[in-house]
Amino acid sequence: MALTSTVKEHPYSHLTDTLSDGSFKFFNPQKLNDSRYDKLPLSIRVLLEAAIRNCDGFYTKQEDVQNIMDWHRQQDKAEVPFSPARVLLQDFTGIPAMVDLAAMRDAVAKHGVDPGLVNPKCPTDLIVDHSLQIDYSKCAIQNAPNPGGGDGPSRPTPSRPPAPKGGSQCGGQRGSCSKAACSDPPSSPGRPPASVQQIENTPLLCPFHLQPVSEPETALKNQEMELIRNKERLQFFKWCSKAFKNVNVVPPDVGTVHQVNLEYLARVVQLRDGYIYPDSVVGTDSHTTMINGLGILGWGVGGIESEAVMLGQPVSLTLPQVVGCKLVGTINPLTTSIDIVLGITKHLRQAGIAGKFVEFFGPGVSQLSAPDRTTIANMCPEYNATVSFFPVDHVTLKHFKKTNFTEEKLELLESYMKAVKLFRRYEDPSEDPEYSEVIEINLSSMVPYVSGPKRPQDRVAVSSMKEDFQSCLDEKVGFKGFHISKEKQETLVPFLHGGQEYQLAHGSVVIAAVISCTNNCNPSVMLTAGLLAKKAVEAGLVVKPYIRTSLAPGSGMVTHYLSTSGVLPYFNQLGFEVIGYGCATCVGNTAPLPEAVVDAIKQGDLVACGVLSGNRHFEGRLCDCVRANYLASPPLVVAYAIAGTVGIDFEKEPLGVTSEGKELYLHDIWPSRDEVQQTEEETVISSIFKDLRGRMEKGNSFWNNIEYPDSVVFPWDHKSTYIRSPSFFSKLSKDVPPPQSIENAHALLFLGDKVTTDHISPAGSIARVSAAAKYLLSKRLTPREFNSYGARRGNDVVMTRGTFASIKLQNRFIGKPGPKTLHIPSGQTLDVFEAADRYQRDGIPLIILAGKDYGSGNSRDWVAKGPYLLGVRAVIAESFEKLHKTQLVGMGIMPLQFLPGQTADSLELSGKERFTITVPNSLSPRQQLTVKTSQGKSFSVTALFDTETDVIFFQHGGLLRYVARTFL
Which of 347, 452, 579, 580 would you label with 326, given CA atoms 20 to 30 Å apart? Predict the structure, then answer.
């Protein structure tokens, strides 16, 4: 119910209260006079307040309020609605959401409905941050970047092209080159520009003219390429910001979605129509949970769920269990927040808390700064919890004093949060709520760890890193092992780089990236890395020039305090230059490794390593030839880059040797906790946040000058390969069609365990031999113009062809990794898209067979939209990742689970049978359905519709069609 409704119309008008200064009204749950409220976890109190405030008798009923108040008995039973205060989109998943809304306007207009009625009802922020690619980087042999993205050429080049005579520079502006402004053609017709060898301490070379620009300002060059490459998408975003009400678009080159959310959009409390209420958010990124560190309830949802919230539909969830995580003990001075993060991640993952809320309490919480808490909350998806909530306390208020919060706003915030008992004093155990269960973690037990080499949950103590990597070489291929024979483990491969010979071995570091989102919100960790770099440079230590080093902060705030503290030049001297603002290495946007390095890795079949301070590192994600990847804190990324190998014992082996021949150990240059805190206090001040606000509001000249169509419906360009009107609303009827059984379906894929969203819907570059590449080539685009899957998420044709296009896909029909499957009627091995297309032309429905944890990983709406457009009607698996299961339901695909103890193997399914699944006219949540095969077998599966709302969405053919029908 809108807050503008009269008080008499509201069933809980008697709970309306006013702050002591009379400034704002609010709904006060304490006026229910129910003793159960004081024992509710604070995250559940937020759900309760939202239900009371939005109770309209339709989407939210009084029964829902009663169920939430009775949480102790209704947890894991009752289905409740939640209407968040706002929606957060990033451009990779945001653009399909906005494209769908634009297409929905077309659909309702065809039925004679005013398309202007289709608007987000919930305030929506869209941050353009996922399109950055690392085209320029210091100290690297680099293929020429290009506006179209894709792979560059791969052929040998001269060691260094001569600089033009007379000292002339390419381009006429400081640190930049505009290709359009230069008279020289980039290359001969039909021939790509030559590769460029970039040498340490030489000018950055213009990729189009092989001439040096005036200064190596890599961030400016990467940003320029980002804007040129994505101009068409940016035009669409700007149209959205003007055509739709309640849409705010944050332009590129401001910061990552998480940083902008933390530093600019976070409110803690919302003020609207004279009412004050808790800030809350759902976002199209699984790491939206980062905001929980500031006492703001939020989590990641799929793109189609976010669209529903944008249009006024609440999120439907089963009232969750809440695990209380009690923190005790004292933090070791040498332990960074990343060590705390990984320690807590391991504890909670082992506790089996998938799908639950986690809420932190206990005296140890007060030792964690607000940045520490947001870093911990950011890793929430890695232990499969829905949220990791840190209620507001004095540390939170202290943090906001550093930001743009005025004293008046802070007083208002504190007054309201205390009035509704959403403010915590962690040292007072009498305030502790009752939880579903309690997990106690002793902070004193935390020691430095890294995570890898293939999965984020596999933690390795730094003191055991050398020994553990050796065991990975020995072990059989699996979650950790590489199975390298003993005689090949000592292989050394020499190669030339920049005229000097180097050697690579197993464990050699070739990628070292301090990247966005997990760490840069935490000044103490980044400053530790910077101070470590400073001491390393002063001691004469260097990073080998062939290592792909990069520094991609989440926002200008990070660069500001690194610069103000004086450590940024030392980062630069070690090769860690700021390459831009946005997701880069984490999402596979790493520039190619030097060709000599790639050749050496392949020649020796080496297990080369990447070390990054991010949150994702599945095998092959950073680079196909880099098999071992470790998550580490930023200072450890710097340390391993200097060492050049992960096969080092920092406690016993020197990091390097000084110019005087003295051995230098890591502990010799590791900054003390006091040193870091002092630097943080001197640099991380309110002016930093004011600078970010100015950056936000000013935008950039490129964005400000973009032209956009002035129309209610979007004028689709049928020649566009970026933005297309999707086919989700084709043949949309006003009435709901009757349910249809799936008859004589073939299995498109026969998959095993741990199929991730990376396998289903890749986000990196588009391979030249893929189905998507064939389509783009048919549109007369060159590989240099392919860009990435993420950038083309607004094109359903590209994304459908990209579905299951991962080179790491393990399809049991094929027996080896690759984006192939068996077309069963013909016996041919085809690209997954080509096989699905042939099935659809023949009118044959499709299913997918899978093992455990189907759909784990990042939230991506195309992991459901893609299979839907391929013709997949159902997925039968042993278990599903919860968010992905919801996404399948939202696209009208049935998630079906084998009964306990049953699998495809135990049922002796070959996958080559034809399957008939009977769907009754009346479906109910978690109903068992019967599957019959053409071989005469019959077995039961559970339809994972958790709620009646899930059933309704499925019956409508998905959430999008359901929402569209509400306008008809």
Answer: 452
Which of 26-35, 100-109, 249-258 has the weakest average pLDDT?
A: 249-258
Q: Which of 436-445, 559-568, 660-669, 693-702 has the highest mean pLDDT?
A: 436-445
C-alpha torsion sign, points 782, 784, 789, 792: negative
The first and second tokens of residue 686, run together, are 């309110």
Find tokens 């990467």 and name the residue: 222
* pLDDT of 681 above 90: no
Tell me the DSSP string of 523-592. HHHHHHHHHHHHHHHHTT----TTSEEEE--SBHHHHHHHHHTT-HHHHHHTT--B--SS--GGGT-PPP
DSSP letter at 362? S
Three-state secondary structure call for residue 223: helix
Average model confidence (pLDDT) for the chain? 84
The angle formed by the CA atoms of residues 949, 955 and 956, to the nearest 5 degrees, is 95
DSSP 132-192: ------SS-EEPPP-TT-S--------S-PPPPGGG--SSSBTTB--GGG-SS-SSSTT-P
Give the H/E segment covering residue 247. Answer: strand 247-250
Cα separation, 694 vs 690, whole angstroms: 6
Q: Indicate if the alpha-carbon torsion angle 278, 279, 280, 286 is positive or negative.
A: negative
Q: What mean pLDDT comes out for the span 376-401?
A: 90
Angle among Cα 612, 613, 617 to the nearest 5 degrees reads 55
Question: Distance (Å, rounded) from C-alpha 919 to C-alpha 461?
Answer: 51
Q: Which amino acid is at 705?
A: N
d(CA 680, CA 717): 50
Alpha carbon distance 570, 117 (integer Å): 54
Residue 430 φ/ψ, nearest 5 degrees: -70, -20
Per-residue pLDDT tens over the stretch 249-283: 988 777 777 778 887 888 899 999 899 999 999 99
**pLDDT tens digit string along 330-380?**
987 667 877 787 788 888 888 888 889 999 999 999 988 887 888 889 888
Look at the block and give the residue holding tokens 């600089």. Answer: 163
Residue 180 reports pLDDT greater than 60: no
DSSP code, position 788: B
List, in sequence order, every residue forming a beta bridge with 478; answer none if it has no partner: none
Determine contact, residues 505/491, Cβ cutoff 8 Å: yes
What phi-psi label fits residue 947: left (phi over 0), alpha (psi between -120 and 50 degrees) or beta? Answer: beta
Size of the chain, expressed as the number of residues it contains = 968
